[in-house]
Amino acid sequence: MEWWMLIASVATLALALGxxxxxxxxxxxxxxxxxxxWKVERGIYKVIGVDPSKEQSWQVYLRSVLYFSVVxxxxxxxxxxxxxxxxxxxxxxxxxxxxxxxxxxxFVTNTNWQAYSGEDLxxxxxxxxxxxxxxxxxxxxxxxxxxxxxxxxxRRSGTIGNFWVDLVxxxxxxxxxxxxxxxxxxxxxxxxxxxxxYVDVTTITGGTQTIPGGPVASQEVIKELGTNGGGFYNAxxxxxxxxxxxxxxxxQCFLILLIPFSLPRTFGKMVGDNRQGYAILxxxxxxxxxxxxxxxxFEFAGDGTAPQLAGAAMEGKEARFGLAQxxxxxxxxxxxxxxxxxxMHDSYTALGGMMPMVNMLxxxxxxxxxxxxxxxxLIIAVIAVFVAGLLVGxxxxxxxxKIGPREMKLASLYILxxxxxxxxxVALSFAIPALRDSIVNESLTNTGSHGLSEVxxxxxxxxxxxxxxxxxxxxxxxxxxxxxxxxxxxxRFISIALVLALAGSLAAQDKIPATAGTLPTHRPLFVGLTxxxxxxxxxxxxxxxxxxxxxxxxxx
Amino acid sequence: xxxxxxxxxxxxxxxxRALLMFTVVLGIGYTLLIxxxxxxxxxxxxxxxxxxxxxxxxxxxxxxxxxxxxxxxNPLPEYFQSRPSAAGDGYDGRSSSGTNWGPENEDLIAAITxxxxxxxxxxxxxxxxxxxDAVTASSSGxxxxxxxxxxxxQIDRVADVRGIPAEQVRELVAAHTQGPDAGYLGESRVNxxxxxxxxxxxxx
Lengths: 556, 204
Description:
heterodimer, A: mainly alpha, two-stranded antiparallel ribbon, 4 strands, B: about 5% strand
């Protein structure tokens, strides 16, 4: 029964996404290639002082991304530090500087890690701070992916597009219209949208209960659509006011997957060969299905002392979702960079809880965050091409661009950044006695290998800009707010710098014609090679640490 | 000032203006637009799906679960009981939360063991009849539903204490049991507050 519901739900998603793959992908390709600016956009460019016809070198593009993000962090930090004096404070005090720093970085990097509790934030911080970053951090991710695609599409070009134009168009032509439609659907389904604050009611037993409010739907929709994930409330999308029922839950999964699964079409269209898009889509889809199936198998089996005692793995899951809608959501949110949750991953079975971790450690490429998933997968494809080139002894090329030493250095650095941050963060947390004391005494809810899993999960989530958690971990300690803040920052912006450098280097090349010796990159063979590369890279790096955490808990 | 510094300063100024523009349009304009549409088109949902009793007083929300206990926290036998909750002291709308206890966590194992015995005794059934949702805390701590199985084992107790026929309560439970959305999205469930409210109105 659970399997049947899972398969029907996944089939529903596949059908909807399949039907929209071409129109949405083509539309996004048009958005980022048309020379025409809307009248309102021309007004915006005038206000912010940008010449939309002028393209940027990769260095200038990168500088624009970084400065825009720095300003974003500062504003968000300030809003949190002054929230008690701003409108709709709801009696909340200012957020302390550690958590405010962490949360500011968290939203600007599209991570949305919750060191904060949503209930402690004022409405002003939520809608003027968090929701705005939900839009623009997502648009930034898409912009960077599009810049990389231009690297493949352009010939002998010193430029890769204009960040401000990409940012404005991605926001106003893609994210905003979809959000308006999606928000209305969410409200119709029961998601709240008001400024009521907390209201006390007298219950039928004569007690009192506090009912929360807030402009939730407007933020919820972009939180999913932009693969952000930061909850309006502490319990995130398991809170009934964020996610009231089964069909809304699947609709949220659809919102999460829509742009990441359509971007391969945009890529194919922009490089002038739609088959290339299908190949990337196939690699993403294969990993997605395999991962969700494994997660479901572990969770439905319900191994472990507590789940077996209770009769099913229902701790930390909502009755209206049950197992099937919970595992679909858990897989979807961690295979992308979303990190919103409709169930508590910390309470999953040992091996079931390992799957979200593995999904993030794969680098979130199946289909990954908006933009980030595409550029992550393209880097893997570049490495697959290189490996194939080594096997047959030819200079590797992808889409007519030579993958030379410079390109390979950038791609290799890209895949090293995240593991270094994850393993480094975990190692420091336990190797330095003072930090270890803080982790064990202040942060962990669970002990033994599950405790280690909480810390692995935290750094995997931070460095991959996911934002979900084994939430038993108290992340508001000085060490974790700082360390995960740094992991989020480096995980996002070092990766982006490398991607843009790669884009610049590719754009500068001329196209070389395909020959009989060129590896076709639109065939199943290449899809298999790409999937294999992704799995192998992850397994080699992370298998040892997983044996100490979830594998030890689940198999011993 | 050299060229690099000047162009850096210029980019920073562009970034600042862009962010302020986005804050006004997306933070304020968009939020107000959606709030306006929600309040006009779907006022009941937008304001939290409130439930009212016969007198018209708001007694809660159909989406937010409640505890049905006395002031000492003991379960009231005349009401259907909700799932265990980790939100504050139980169903606290200000602090939604799960326990985050792992599958081998000793506190969780102890809690499930204890609840199993307690629920079985409270309802006069065997421990084998107690379903999983009755002994596990939800993700939000505000879960408004229980499984039909958990409702079933509570019927006789509620009917007994209220002095009404079990058949009548059974019908009420059936009327308040909702199947999965579209037949396959989510699980069958019973809304506890709506059911208890209907029970109270039965006697009025």
